[in-house]
Write a structure and sequence with these properties.
Length: about 325
């Protein structure tokens, strides 16, 4: 009888969420395959475990052969692949629907025991957002192929590598005004490592099959989240609410510029689809399974935000020293 450590394959395992899952699975003693399109850019995951325990490998979620090969011998699979890009080869449909279905198909074919699929709160076939539609379609494909899959739907995720608070803070560095889109829209931000804890619990068999919506302890509006960011970064900025109609036109113009330049102009500012997402609250629905069913207590934003947003302060890591120095009397 073999006593070799168990093996988990994590698609997108070097991404924002995947790297935290990989680190925690290594600490559990599992071998970890980090399946990514560019394994040479994922070398940083190797020190998460002992020599040879965590290995980045080549896999393209759009390719049958590489997806299947990445799963050979695995005891569990986690799919963290997602995108905010509605165009190109790795678009919403290719990554979040067809890719999700491909992973689930081979999990079933190879007889792998567990599949954890990372989706998102707001996944809805009827949504006006293509992102939310494809997230919902991906869930349906996964459940059709592998009914015992565990689906995790986090709200907006925050952490040192996030593109939410970091992007807001970066904008506040260069602009005295912050245009507020969907200022009254509610969010329930969740710490990235808490999402990783939930995924690991599922891999280890501590979560029954089904969907879990993951939100942090705080529910706040977009306006309140901007205020949090400003307080953490020690900046004062004027917030100006912008109507959805105006923002939609601007976002469509940016999308058009992307299309007309054949991708030379990257719209990293705001897409029309993101505007649609901002119209709806992004919080855990009443009656849904969540962290409480997993025995996990999520941390608050107060505990985490200062630990990485300090770099956006006027004096960076020396801000508190500078502030205290101003109080000294000569």
């Amino acid at each position: 009888m073999s006593h070799a450590p168990k093996l988990v394959t994590i698609f997108g395992g070097s991404g924002f969420v995947g790297r935290y899952i990989a680190r925690r699975m290594a600490k559990e003693g599992w071998r970890v395959r980090v399946a990514v399109r560019r394994p040479n850019e994922a070398i940083f995951v190797k020190p998460y475990g002992t020599v040879g325990q965590v290995e980045p490998i080549l896999a393209n979620i759009r390719d049958d052969a590489s997806v299947r090969a990445a799963m050979l011998g695995a005891d569990a699979v986690v799919n963290c692949v997602g995108t905010f890009d509605k165009s190109g080869r790795n678009n919403f449909e290719a990554a979040q629907v067809e890719g999700a279905a491909r992973v689930a198909k081979f999990v079933k074919e190879l007889g792998i025991g567990r599949l954890i699929h990372i989706s998102a709160i707001g996944a809805d076939i009827e949504s006006s957002s293509l992102y939310a539609q494809t997230k919902a379609k991906g869930e349906l494909e996964v459940q059709k192929q592998f009914p015992n899959a565990i689906v995790l739907r986090p709200s907006v995720i925050f952490g040192p590598e996030d593109l939410f608070f970091n992007r807001l803070a970066g904008f506040a560095k260069i602009s005295p005004i912050i245009p507020l889109v969907g200022g009254k829209t509610q969010f329930q931000p969740v710490y990235v490592d808490d999402v990783a804890k939930a995924a690991v619990k599922a891999v280890l068999g501590g979560a029954p099959a089904g969907a879990y919506e993951l939100g942090g302890p705080d529910i706040e509006t977009m306006s309140q989240l901007v205020d949090r960011m400003l307080a953490c970064t020690r900046r004062r900025r004027l917030k100006i609410s912008v109507p959805f109609a105006i923002v939609s036109l601007k976002a469509k113009g940016l999308d058009l510029a992307f299309a007309m330049t054949f991708g030379l102009f990257k719209n990293t500012i705001l897409t029309a689809d993101q505007v649609e997402q901002l119209r709806n609250d992004n919080v855990v629905n009443l009656g849904m399974n969540g962290f409480d069913k997993l025995g996990i207590t999520p941390v608050t934003m107060d505990v985490i935000l200062d630990t990485y947003l300090y770099c956006h302060r006027p004096y960076g890591q020396y801000t508190e020293l500078t502030e205290s120095g101003k109080n000294l009397r000569t």
